[in-house]
Amino acid sequence: MTCVHSLTSGLRERVTVSHANASSYYGEAYFRKLLGLLSRSGINVVCCPLINSAMQGRLDSFPRGRGIARIKEMWQAGVNVSIAHDDIQSPFYPLGTGSVLQAANMAAHIAHMTGREEVAELVRMITNRAAKTLQIEGEYGVEVNKPASFVLVDATDSVDLIRRQPVCRYVVSKGRIVAETLPAVTSFFASIGNE
Predict the structure, then answer these.
(1) Residue 27 domain-assigned?
(2) Residues with Cβ < 8 Å from 17, sequence gap 6 or more?
(3) CATH assignment at residue 121
(4) Does 133 reside within a domain?
(5) Fewest C-beta in 10 Å: which of 14, 45, 117, 160?
(6) Residue 181 lies in a domain
(7) Count of the separate structural domains present in the chain
């Protein structure tokens, strides 16, 4: 229904649906039909893998669904998919921290997206694709004439970023450092085996 309304109203990419967990329970024929509509409609899908993996299927008998939208298939079909984190220290999910890196790490596991290109896509789902969902693509990124709002983390590549989920070293908003996390220091006081 939402896809059809998005198409007929012309709202298209200005429409965003969140969670879309039911897609993990749909039969393949119905899901493929829905996937075609999603792709044509231009709708954005926001997946929240932490809360969804904790809540979905909780009361189901076995076999249980995976609990999140079929983001891998949606991405492969050209749907703009973003990953988010909701329920920060709520009664529904008291473990929430607000870390989109943690959410992307969970999505990598549940959505079977652990290949190098798939992990790179997960990073796009929490950066570029999220900016597209929010309709701030024109302002997003580190380029001349853009507002210079970004976070700086210590990671060598997408896999390292999602695997280690390092804390933000700096948070920069409109060209100003607004937060800084000092690196942890580890000290060794004795040589193992040389005592």
Answers:
(1) yes
(2) 2, 43, 44, 45, 46
(3) 3.20.20.140
(4) yes
(5) 117
(6) no
(7) 1
Q: Is 44 exposed, middle or buried (0-12, 13-18, 19+ CB in 10 A)?
A: buried
Cis peptide before 91 (omega within 30 of 0): no
Beta strands 80-83 and 44-47 are: parallel
The pLDDT of residue 110 is 94
Task: Specify the pLDDT at position 184.
Answer: 86
Q: How far is CA 134 from CA 9, 38, 40, 84, 131, in A?
A: 19, 18, 19, 12, 5
Phi, psi of 83 (to 5 degrees): -115, 135
- pLDDT tens track for 174-191: 999 999 999 888 888 877
129 CA to centre of own chain = 9
70-101 tens-digit pLDDT: 999 999 999 999 999 988 888 888 998 999 99
pLDDT of 192 higher than 80:
no
Query: Containing domain of residue 71, as a range?
Result: 2-137
pTM for the structure as a whole: 0.88
